[in-house]
Amino acid sequence: MTVARPDPAAAPSPHTPLAERYRHVRGMSLALAAPLTDEDCQVQSMPDASPTKWHLAHVTWFFETFILERYETGFRPFDAAFRILFNSYYHGVGERHPRPQRGLITRPTLAEVKAYRTQVDERMAAVLARHAGDPSLSELVTLGLHHEQQHQELLLTDIKHVLSFNPTHRPYAKRWPMGVVKPQSLRWHAYEGGLFELGHDAARDGAFCFDNETPRHRTYVAAFELASRPVSYDDYLAFIDDGGYLRPELWLSMGWDWVQAGQREAPLYWRRDAGRWLTHTLQGSVEIDPHTPACHLSYFEADAYARWAGARLPSEAEWELAARRLAKGARGNDNFADRGAFHPLPAHASAVDEPVQMFGDVWEWTQSSYSAYPGFRPLPGAVGEYNGKFMCNQLVLRGGSCATPAGHVRASYRNFFPPDAQWQFSGLRLARDATS
HSE-up of 308 (CA within 13 Å, CB side)? Predict the structure, then answer.
């Protein structure tokens, strides 16, 4: 994983904030898996996705490998084979089971994985009580909990992909009350150029961050304009109707090859049915809502749409600058679990004249390559492997999505994916150079 700035908490004991947070986060993972059958939890629908069972085991492996092995007296693993089966990409820890073959791990069973979780949780409670006040332990536990929350988001996006192959369109959850929302017209907000502090700010972003959000540094941003809202399904439908997937001049060369190779004519999960467009959601198959932010777009699709619209994608510095200018508390939809929607929702009118839905509906593609900030140094050892080694051939996304835990929604958070990735809740917001 990555460097953590630990949450300020009292010395850990069975009833301290850190211990309570541990129980809450660990319980949330099981709650997210609860609507699924054992068979649902086994399936791997593509190499980039992982089975729910694997997610539940891997996050437990993290606590056993990086914390219990270090802090537990007389440490013995729950099962020595799990060290290989549920290692993701930590070369410093040892061998790993091939990622594309995670769905072939039929044993241990889901019940055995849950027993693994229960035992590790009991041992972690003892370690937290025995080593109360150890700042290194607090730092590692905090890191492990944020790591698990990342996998909670992946659990939802991965199971959505799995269920999309079921022709009966069985839902993961009940359909959300979409309601009637007046469409929000797209407007432009202007920002002056100049030097800007980019990166994690503990005073505004919270105590914790991942290492790729640091170090905070000054960067220059030219004057620009940013759209008031994300691109909606209705906006994107106009792009499709104008032959967007048939016009090579709109696409990057790699993007056009991607369109041609996949014979693509619409975003992931869209399908035509009797003259209308339906989309697969975690609530089953529904008709697209025109005012909802478009999602499951690749970078190629986001970039092509921006060209078609006579605009461009923002840089991540532009995005963060705008996000930090929002009124205090303007975070959009806060808690993905409490909302229960697991899908971006239409924007409501804002009382403040500023961009809306910058947090918590769709991850917004930027034009920025995922690379190190000036002065970035990964941590030594296995826990430093998480971010730095992926800083190649990826693009940055900002803002969080409807599947992102609320504690991960902050202005400095940098998500990253290759340009063809679609299965995350990824959308876009337009930007353009300042008009004179």
Answer: 23
